[in-house]
Design goal:
Strand order of the largest sheet: 2-1-5-4-3
Helix content: 40-55%
Number of domains: 3
Radius of gyration: 23 Å
Structural class: alpha+beta
CATH architecture of the largest domain: 2-Layer Sandwich
Distance between the termini: 63 Å
């Protein structure tokens, strides 16, 4: 695996953090490196059952539109895939057995007509209501996902996650060198521009407030320092690594926890500014990196995750349960998911056994008890009225 190819790809990913129009080029590089024919970054709103495409490469616009308008609502893979934590790389076989996938509508009507046979995915962000995955989809000519593809995806997904987070922090604005500092000044996260020695060239308003508090970060003779010794040592190593290329920074790590003395947790993400499109900002301000610091929020599990974990539901059982809540009957679930009614009844039997219930209306109540955003309260009330007994 040539180091030059990996370094170039990491650089393209971080360039896209500042210039979002470069994401298609970066995703093309991801496909070439990992092995795939299409890649994307998109958002799913679980509550509204809608999807929005952010960036993609190698797509057929017709099928993208079909997916956004129709198949995102029918995708049997979503409830099962949602359980994976942010940053965890997974493939199709981790989500659902292949024979079950081949019975679903998403496969028969969307994947198979395009020749797609497999995918690798990773969650960049997720909450109880929305999630943002990135996926690399493999065509018949690419073959099935193998260990090499998985290991390569694991190499680059941390960088995609960080670049996406940084891009979100700066509101996906184009940050030209002449306006870079002004852009940063209006942001809520603490942001610092530093040189190779860690000296602060610029701190935005939020960053200066962090320095004044001195709980997580301090300015020691003009150098950005962490209050914890180990974290400060890591910061020094990362800043030095920024001078040696994107791969060197990746080896050192460009995301790190910052633990204040009073408890709680902050996270620092470092964006190298010494290569590619980012060089313009770095050269103008004589800096090697931008440091984004924000308070870490605990990731709350989704209701689907909580249900699956609480009752040891398989991916298909969870899909059927969610279908029952959405649609209200086994025949309709079978039609939507492209499986037989007998298969739905089998999964439903297992769900009843695991949840210690015996009626579909009890399942609706169970999901409601988990305060699921998948369940429209009015729909629940109508279902209970029409089916309760």
């Amino acid at each position: 695996m040539p180091e030059e190819k990996l370094s170039q790809l990491i650089g393209e990913i971080y360039d896209a953090a500042l210039k979002p129009e470069l994401w298609p080029q970066a995703l093309e590089g991801v496909c070439s490196f990992v092995g795939g024919s299409m890649a994307n970054i998109f958002c799913l709103d679980v509550a509204a059952k809608t999807a929005k495409m952010f960036f993609e490469w190698g797509n057929d616009p017709h099928y993208t539109q079909l997916y956004m308008e129709k198949y995102s609502k029918l995708n049997a893979l979503f409830p099962a895939a949602y359980r994976f934590p942010v940053g965890r790389v997974f493939c199709q076989s981790d989500v659902m057995p292949r024979d079950e996938l081949h019975e679903t509508r998403i496969y028969k009507e969307w994947m198979q007509p395009q020749g797609y046979v497999d995918f690798i995915g990773c969650h960049l962000e997720k909450s109880g209501k929305t999630w943002i995955p990135t996926t690399v989809i493999r065509h018949e000519r690419d073959g099935m996902v193998d260990d090499i593809a998985m290991s390569r995806m694991r190499l680059i997904t941390p960088h995609i996650c960080r670049a996406a987070l940084i891009g979100n922090v700066i509101n996906l604005r184009t940050c030209e060198a002449v306006t870079f500092a002004d852009t940063l000044d209006g942001l809520a996260a603490g942001i610092f521009l530093v040189d190779k020695a860690g000296r602060i060239v610029h701190a935005n308003v939020s960053g200066q407030a962090m320095l004044d508090e001195g709980i997580v970060l301090r300015s020691a003779r003009g150098r950005l320092t962490a209050t914890k010794v180990d974290a400060d040592r890591m910061l020094k190593d990362i800043f030095a690594g920024c001078c040696n290329g994107d791969t060197a920074v990746g080896i050192k790590g460009v995301a790190m926890p910052l633990e204040p003395a009073c408890g709680g947790q902050h996270v620092a993400h470092v964006l190298p500014l010494t290569a590619g499109t980012r060089r313009r900002a770095g050269n103008t301000y004589a800096v090697v990196a931008a440091v984004f610091v924000h308070k870490a929020e605990l990731e709350s599990p989704s209701p689907a995750e909580a249900l699956a974990k609480a009752y040891d539901l398989t991916a298909m059982e969870l899909g059927v349960l969610v279908g029952i809540v959405h649609i209200g009957g086994g025949p309709a679930v079978a039609q939507i998911r492209g499986i037989s009614e007998a298969t739905v009844r089998t999964h439903l039997k297992h769900i009843f056994q695991k949840t210690k219930t015996n009626r579909q209306v009890d399942l609706v109540k169970l999901v409601a008890a988990f305060e699921s955003p998948l369940l429209d309260p009015k729909k629940s009330q109508r279902y209970l009225k029409n089916n309760g007994r």
